Amino acid sequence: MAGDRNDEIETALHKHLAWWGLRHIESDAAYFAWQREVFTPEDFAALHRSIEAKRAAASGSSAEIAFYDLTAQSRFIPALYSQRYEYYIEVGSRIAAQLESAQTILDAGCGIGLLTTFYAKHCPDASVVGIDRSPVSIALARQRAHDLGLTNVCFECVDLDQQVPAEKFDVIVATHVLLQAEQDPGLPSCDWQDFKRALDVHAQQTFEQRTGLGLRLDRLGGALASHGRMIVFEKTRQLARRIPFQRALAARGLMLLLPPEPIRYRSIEEVTDDGPLYVTGLAPSSNVLPWAESPEPDGVPPLNVEQLRSVRADQDQPLYENHGTSAQQAWLNLPTKQVVDQVTRTEADGRQLHVEWGRAGEFVYLYCANTFDQRQLVVIEPARAAMVETYYREILGEQSTSTQGALG
Ligand SMILES: C[S@@+](CC[C@H](N)C(=O)[O-])C[C@H]1O[C@@H](n2cnc3c(N)ncnc32)[C@H](O)[C@@H]1O
Fold first, then answer.
1. Mean pLDDT lowest among 85-99, 169-183, 275-289
2. From CA 228, how far away is CA 223, in angstroms rounded?
3. Whole-Å CA distances, 57 to 38, 60, 89, 234, 255
4. Which residues line ligand 1 (CB under 6 A)?
5. What does the DSSP assignment read for 248-293?
6. Range in 187-201, 294-308, 359-373 with the lowest mean pLDDT
7. Ligand 1 centre and the CA of 106: distance in Å?
8. pLDDT, tens digit (0-9, with 9 covering 90-100), for 5-57
9. Ligand 1 pocket: which of 55, 89, 132, 138 to mutate (most atoms <8 Å of CB)?
10. Domain 2-281 carries which CATH code?
């Protein structure tokens, strides 16, 4: 799908963001300086209070709406929303490229309409509707659409958790709106030794209910024309969230029409990987793709024992370190493993944790794995075995009892 993004769309989107007053800022220092020019101490305090209240509240609460109402004040827009500059470019340009044949487009959870107005500009022959449950966001979106002279877009204050959109649409776009429950860890794997999730209808329903995903997807599914497409993008980088998200789409008959595209962008200096953007559709098509449930390649080089022998020992660096999902394969590939100590236990939050350390040939290793897909493998030279044992005990929350490496 990367080929579908084109320079023209991106250039137009940069211009559009500039019209909204957004700037592409790359350093925290410059960004904070700008914020200090714009926000009074009272503004900062109000924003922090609102962020805290939103975090503490359940999805769908009035605190969430109040947060989006507060951040939709027009004097806040340039400085606040510039944090999302790259997000808008990465997501908006890809989506706009997919809209060209649509006559009717719904942007669900459109916020202040920053991207919705771009879609309307980009598709002048289409009729575009933006809905959101934040009244202040909708008021601002209407004002800005008017200022832009757009006549093919309208905005409605609709809470998807309460109401069903009245019409049917050729394309429904939902970005950062269906799975807002950011703290929700998702579904654990069956076992710390694999990444598979059981086909557990009850666990899936519970996930969809507690995050609000199920209801929102049902409502949007009902508003999609039978030939329509739904384009969705949520915080689903972790497999534990991605799998139930994909299953929720599949259960509503939404089939994958294009390869999912992982999207990476920077929020000022921080790199964010949210998970893939999906283009899905209801109509059966010969080009339907399978929903993948395996981890994506993590880019960590595989373990090569021969190479380890030639790595020069450095006091601070392990010979090999892998914090990605591929650590599991590297651990399986360790030669002549002899476990010195291991624990598998269930943590207070229900996740299963496995930690082990031992000898592998002439090396010492430490391996941790849990049912939320976290893996860690560290391989070091035997002279530093005591360090591995100390680390092992720290992970288990125990006091270290060793002063001498058991393998040393
Ligand atoms: C993170 S913003 C994303 C805005 C926009 N889609 C984007 O990609 O920039 C989330 C928006 O979803 C809206 N929202 C969340 N749940 C909603 C619901 N159930 N019905 C309507 N809007 C909702 C919020 O009010 C907020 O404006």
1. 275-289
2. 9
3. 28, 8, 30, 20, 33
4. 68, 109-111, 115, 132-134, 137, 159-161, 175-177, 180, 216
5. HHHHTTPEE-S--EEEEEEETTEEEEEEEEEEEESS--TT-BPPP-
6. 294-308
7. 13
8. 589 999 999 999 999 999 999 999 999 999 999 999 999 999 999 988 888 87
9. 132
10. 3.40.50.150
Give the HSE-up count for residue 311: Cα atoms under 13 Å, Cβ half-sphere: 18
The total of other beta-carbon atoms located within 10 Å of residue 319's CB is: 22
**Count of residues making up the chain:** 408
Q: Which residue has the tokens 């919705």?
A: 116
- C-alpha to C-alpha distance for 79 and 102, rounded to whole angstroms: 33
Q: What is the pLDDT of residue 405?
A: 31
Strand partners, 322: 377
Sign (positive/negative) of CA torsion 41, 46, 52, 55? negative
For 311: left if phi > 0, alpha if psi spans -120 to 50, otherwise beta; the answer is beta
* Residue nearest atom 13 of ligand 1, based on CA coordinates: 109
